[in-house]
Design goal:
It is a single-pass membrane protein. Keywords: Calcium, Cell adhesion, Disulfide bond, EGF-like domain, Glycoprotein, Membrane, Repeat, Signal, Transmembrane, Transmembrane helix. The chain folds into seven domains: about 90 residues, Immunoglobulin-like (Sandwich); about 100 residues, Immunoglobulin-like (Sandwich); about 100 residues, Immunoglobulin-like, CATH 2.60.40.60; about 110 residues, Immunoglobulin-like (Sandwich), CATH 2.60.40.60; about 100 residues, Cadherins (Immunoglobulin-like, Sandwich), CATH 2.60.40; about 100 residues, Immunoglobulin-like (Sandwich); about 80 residues, Immunoglobulin-like (Sandwich), CATH 2.60.40.60. Helix content is about 0%, strand content about 40%. It is built from two helices and 60 strands. Strands 26, 29, 32, 33 and 34 form a five-stranded mixed beta sheet that branches. Strands 45, 48, 51, 52 and 53 form a five-stranded mixed beta sheet that branches. A four-stranded mixed beta sheet has the order 1-6-5-2, with no helix packed on it. A hairpin with a 5-residue loop joins β30 and β31.
């Protein structure tokens, strides 16, 4: 008999299914001495293994996974059929699965970004890398960490090979190294080096900035500016750099001192220094400004610089005449070389900038005078005629007229500066000229709504004489119909009453200009004043109330009546437009807006409306006549339109049938009944006549043609006639 046995085996995890486990052998004695043996594995153990029932070979039926199941205990039963009864032997197989390195280490992320402040001490923990390995045995799942840097320069970090902790190995400085790219690897420790597996990730270490640097000025501490620059001129650009990042490196600029008069403005963001006032080197030649550059860190760091602004001199002082206006007089007909005036100017500058040169600038009449360029003395060059050149005066260059002399004084600076003064030279006169109007005829247009006393035009007659000889008096010598008068001194023509274009549209009169001389002729001009229309008249209907009639049934646009409105104004103010403003709610009528012709817009029916606006005001047509003035004026008129009847409706009986019952004994002359019909027409068209058209052949009945009364004319006999049917016609 077989005895119970126990065997132990080890199978590698990567053993392939369907292969015979040749290293698992049952006892050879069983195979030799007994030829009829049967092998089997208990049912609960046959998931991963199977056995050949005849040979006893055991083979793998499913793949093994050490991490799922690392040990199996199989119960093998051997039956010997040579003996009677058969004998059973049980063999227990203990099978251990040997782990294979079939899992790689694995990081959760492929890329991580880590931030660390630049001021942390050496040895500070930066990050802990943690890779997982799914193998079951110790060496296959034991992980060792290493790293490589992808950045140029020294790597300031260390990683612990077993724990994966990353620490600082050297002091950090963001301004030198702002970030480091590391490749971190995790490798298992399988016994065979060729079997070892690894995984890696990329880590970016960002060094975070702290405010550890003060701003450093990079701009010059010296600047120059001309004294004649305008306010707002850019003088200097102050610049400072701060190697820190973000707000720690943002620099603003401030003036601490030296700008007490607020001569300069400093943009705190851009560092642009500009003038806020006009500079004057003669007042202040140099400015020393204490400038502070301040970063935005916490706490903020700063630097200070003394900026010297030197104001450069220019020839900014111009010569000034002692008088801006000189007035003098010279008699006409004097010999050339007659003294006129001496002018003088001063210049606050010194040296060449203060040496002065006088001259008369070209202009009308300037050749009649000569000026000493050094002394400023002016004399005549010809014998003057006051009527030819009455007044010479000096003023600004741009205002030189035909009778303008411009005297200039300029210094010898580079560039030179100059100024001018006004010189009025009056040539004394005789009364040898009469007044003259510029034109012989004037035409103007004025609005008719001018207020009384309004000036419409100012006439001017020139007299070349001087003083009383040149005073002109104005007068009107024709009838202005009381509408206009003239100011004798100013020549201003004014209205003396309210104008009305509709009464008089044009005025023509003569105006005379005369001086005090009784010997010289007067000057006359003709004045024509056209009166412009103002919309001051509303259109007016010829009648305020119109009556008209129209037959019913006329086709649309049948003319009914033409109304007329007149407007005394002219142009658009007198153009009249007609419209219906009320009483036409049903749209039965229309009116020609320009001709005032009132017409039908639909076919009228007398029976629906016999009279428009006859019984109440709301039924009248109210017409509006308005002009095209601005604002528009208007008036209204009322039209009563009567629709005349046409015999277009037949009479209609109130009842189509009359059923009358009478006794045969009724007396002759008795009233049997009375028929009635109505007609929508009026007048003769509505007068109805009744006749019996049939059914009264024997003359039993009489019909009153006006009243419709039916009377008995003959005795009735029931036995002769039971029923009479009378056909009665209404016409």
């Amino acid at each position: 008999a077989f005895s119970q046995d126990f065997k132990h085996f080890v199978i590698p995890e990567n053993f392939k299914p369907a292969q015979v486990l040749s290293f698992i052998k049952l006892s050879d004695n069983h195979l030799i001495n007994n030829k009829k043996l049967h092998y089997s594995i208990a049912e609960e153990d046959d998931v991963h293994f199977e056995i050949d029932s005849l040979t006893g070979d055991i083979f793998l039926s499913n793949e093994l996974d050490y991490e799922t199941a690392s040990h199996f205990l199989l119960q093998v039963t051997i039956k010997d059929y040579e003996n009677t009864p058969p004998q059973n032997t049980t063999v227990f197989l203990s099978i251990d699965v040997e782990d294979q390195n079939d899992h790689s280490p694995h990081f959760q992320d492929d890329f991580v970004v880590i931030g660390i402040e630049e001021n942390v001490p050496v040895g500070t923990l930066v990050y802990t890398f943690n890779a997982k390995d799914g193998d079951g045995s110790f060496l296959n799942s034991k992980i060792k960490y290493s790293m490589e840097t992808n950045s140029l320069g020294e790597n300031p970090f260390l990683i612990h090979p077993s724990y994966g902790t990353l620490i600082t190995a050297f002091p950090l400085d963001r301004e030198i190294t702002c970030s480091v790219i590391l490749t971190v690897s995790a490798i298992d420790q399988a016994i065979n080096l060729t079997d070892r597996k690894l995984d890696s990730l990329t880590a970016k270490i960002v060094v975070l900035d702290i405010n550890d640097n003060s701003p450093i000025f990079t701009s010059s501490p010296l600047s120059y500016v001309m004294e004649n620059v305008e306010a707002g001129f850019l003088v200097h650009r102050i610049a400072a750099r701060d190697p820190d990042e973000g707000k720690n490196g943002q620099v603003t600029y401030h003036i601490l001192s030296g700008n007490e008069n607020e001569t300069f403005i400093l943009d705190k963001v851009t560092g642009l220094l500009s003038t806020s006032l006009l500079l004057d080197r003669e007042t202040q030649e140099r400015y020393n400004l204490a400038i502070m550059a301040l970063d935005d860190g916490i706490p903020a760091l700063s630097a200070t610089q003394i900026l010297t602004v030197v104001v450069l001199d220019v020839n900014d002082e111009r010569p000034i005449f002692l008088k801006q206006t000189y007035e003098t007089a010279v008699c006409e007909n004097q010999d050339p070389g007659e003294f006129v005036v001496m002018v003088e100017a001063v210049d606050r500058d010194s040296g060449l900038n203060s040496l002065l040169h006088y001259e008369i600038l070209p202009g009308s009449g300037y050749g009649n005078f000569r000026m000493n360029s050094d002394t400023g003395k002016i004399v005549t060059t010809i014998s003057l005629d006051r009527e030819t050149e009455e007044t010479f005066y000096i003023k600004d260059r741009e205002d030189i007229s035909n009778f303008t002399l411009v005297i200039e004084c300029h210094d010898l600076g580079n560039p030179p500066r100059s100024s001018t003064a006004q010189l009025y030279i009056t040539v004394l006169d005789e009364n040898d000229n009469n007044p003259l109007f510029a034109k012989h005829h004037y035409q103007i247009s004025v609005r008719e709504d001018l207020q009384e006393g309004s000036a419409v035009m100012e006439l001017f007659a020139s007299d070349e004489d001087d003083g009383l000889n040149g005073e002109v008096m104005y007068s009107v010598i024709d009838d202005t119909f009381g509408a206009f008068a003239i100011d004798s001194v100013t020549g201003s023509i004014v209205t003396t009453q309210i104008l009305d274009r509709e009464t008089k549209s044009v005025y023509t009169f003569r105006v005379v200009a005369s001086d005090c001389s009784p010997h010289l002729p007067r000057s006359t001009t003709v004045m024509m004043v056209w009166i412009q229309d103002v919309n001051d008249n509303a259109p007016k209907f010829e009648q305020s109330y119109y009556k008209a009639s129209v037959w019913e049934g006329q086709i649309p646009k049948t003319d009914i009546i033409q109304v007329f409105a007149t407007d005394l104004d002219s142009g658009l103010n007198g153009e009249t437009e007609y419209s219906i403003v009320s009483g036409n709610e049903n749209g039965a009528f229309l009116i020609d807006s320009s001709r005032g012709i009132l017409a039908t817009s639909t076919i009228l029916d007398y029976e629906n409306t016999s009279s428009y606006r006859e019984t109440a005001s709301s039924h009248y047509l109210v017409l509006l006549a308005s002009d095209h003035g601005s604002p528009s004026l208007n008036s209204t008129a009322t039209v009563l339109i009567t629709v005349q009847d046409v015999n277009d409706n037949p009479p209609l009986f109130n009842n189509l049938e009359y059923h009358i019952h009478v006794k045969e004994s009724i007396a002759i002359g008795s009233r049997i009944t009375e028929v009635a019909a109505s007609d929508c027409d009026v007048g003769a068209n509505a007068e109805i006549t009744y006749t019996i058209s049939s059914g009264n052949d024997k003359g039993h009945f009489h019909l009153d043609e006006k009243t419709g009364s039916v009377d008995l004319m003959k005795t009735l006999d029931y036995e002769d006639t039971v029923k009479f049917t009378l056909i009665i016609q209404a016409t």
